[in-house]
Amino acid sequence: MSRLAMVVLWPAFVMSGVLEALIFALVDPSDLWVSEHLALSRQGTYTLCFLLLWLVISIAAAISVLMARLPDDEEQGRRSAPHWPR
């Protein structure tokens, strides 16, 4: 289970960092609604946005992993690649 969690969380962590860098290269954190209404500093805005991005990407990756697992694989206790139609 912990290996499966790392398969989901590590790529999501990396992509959250990439997306945050791209977003904040174009947008000033102090211009965001979040920083104004929650009275967050720039660093607080960076942190909150990073965590939100990580959460969303992690959920999407977890759904993909769960959809890729086949019922036969769980019954036999092994993991294999999905059988794609030819």
Describe this structure in words.
The chain is mainly alpha-helical and 86 residues long. The protein has a domain at 17-70. The protein contains 4 helices and no strands. It has helices spanning 2-26, 33-37, 42-68, 71-76. The longest helix is centred in the middle third of the chain and has 27 residues, at 42-68. The radius of gyration is 18 Å and the shape is elongated. The mean pLDDT is 80.
Please summarize the sheet with the most strands.
none
| Overall geometric form | elongated
The value of Rg in angstroms is 18 Å
| Contiguous helical run count | 4
The topology string of helices and strands comes to HHHH
Which class do the helix and strand fractions yield?
A: mainly alpha
Uncertain stretches: none
Average pLDDT metric: 80
Separation of the first and last Cα atoms: 31 Å
Quaternary class: single chain
Topology, number of strands: 0
Give helix % range. over 70%
Strand content: under 5%
List the topology elements.
Blueprint: H1 2-26, H2 33-37, H3 42-68, H4 71-76
Helix pairs in contact: 1-3
